[in-house]
Amino acid sequence: MFVVRFDLRAPGADGPGRAARHRAAVDMARYVDQHGCASIVVSEHHATDDGYLPSPLMMAGAMAAATTSSPIVVAVALLPLHDPVRLAEDIVTLDHLSEGRSMVVLGIGYRPVEYELYGVDYHRRGRIADEKLAQLLDLLDRSAVGADTVRVTPAPLTVPRPTLAWGGASLAAARRAGRNGIGFFAQTDAPGLLEAYEESSREAGHDPGICVLPSPAAPYAVFVADDVDTGWDEVGESLLVDAVAYQQWNRDAGTALDTASLSSATSVAELRSAEGAHRVVTPDGARQVLRDHGLLTLHPLCGGLEPDVAWPYLERGVEAATT
């Protein structure tokens, strides 16, 4: 099983270069959909120096229109920064475009600058998230049943509502997901998260839903090369860009570097020797990752790789995962 991620981070790219990466992401989504991709994932961040994708639902819609089978996952949408009515309408539209294949994972984020950009109080983000999540769920539920009130229209395709989950690494995040009757996508497999989610679900009268607890040992950006040395020479700097950017964001926010997607490396050599989140492997190495973790995560445009560089790695990754 393999998944593919896109965030469109591309430091130093000019306008045409960014446009090319946006179009390449849609083309790559179409390609992996034709080869049995388990999910296509897009992410959200704002006010970045590298042009990180700020509009994941718009990109998800483009990918949904270009695909027919693979689930399209937004992970995450930063709920406190969104208007719940507008977000509900966008989720419903994506639900129809994808013919029910979409999932939106909501979260609160960890970068104060994003809240500053939107004029939202960062220190109240948990309370704001609770208020907006309750409103969003009510809007989607009333839309689905055609309640005799002013409501979001049209009704979603998916009954009882489009698939939602909550993302985070804390017990508070697990409990928020549980008491609201939605799935939980953790950023790590820390002790107590599963129990907190399931307990909160049942206390609120819900059956626990999907709960994803990724191992910090699992790589989240795998590049498949015929020769590992050549591969690191070609993509290593871009992988380091990605690793260092997340390090800095988390240090600025005072969060720990122990989630599944983070690395503490400060050089390509360190990134390579760590054999952690970012890896360059042979096809046999990719199959070993699959055996070890049950999942191969490809991130073809990671760190702003040029599409013509990224494509062969994507194709080799897909082949390794499916043969």
Features:
323 residues, alpha/beta, TIM Barrel, 2 domains, two-stranded parallel ribbon, 11 helices, 10 strands
Describe it for me?
Helix 1 packs across helix 2, helix 1 (15-33) runs parallel beside helix 11 (307-322) and helix 3 packs across helix 5 (125-145). 45% of the residues are buried. By secondary structure, this protein is α/β, with parallel strands linked by helices. Helix content is 47%, strand content 14%. The strands form two sheets. An eight-stranded parallel β-sheet has the order 7-6-5-4-3-2-1-10. The protein folds into two domains: 6-22 and 37-168, Alpha-Beta Barrel (TIM Barrel), CATH 3.20.20.30; 221-322, no CATH class. The protein is globular and about 60 Å long. The mean pLDDT is 95.
Number of strands: 10
Largest sheet: 8 strands, parallel
Distance between the termini: 11 Å
Q: Could you say which overall geometry the principal axes of the C-alpha atoms support?
A: globular
Q: Determine the number of helices (DSSP H or I, runs of at least 4 residues).
A: 11
CATH classification class of the largest domain: Alpha Beta
Secondary-structure arrangement, i.e. CATH architecture of the largest domain? Alpha-Beta Barrel
Mean pLDDT: 95
H/E topology pattern: EHEHEHEHHEHEHEEHHEHEH
CATH topology of the largest domain: TIM Barrel
- Mind telling me the CATH superfamily name of the largest domain? Luciferase-like domain
Summarize the amount of helix as a percent range: 40-55%
**Strand residues, percent:** 5-15%
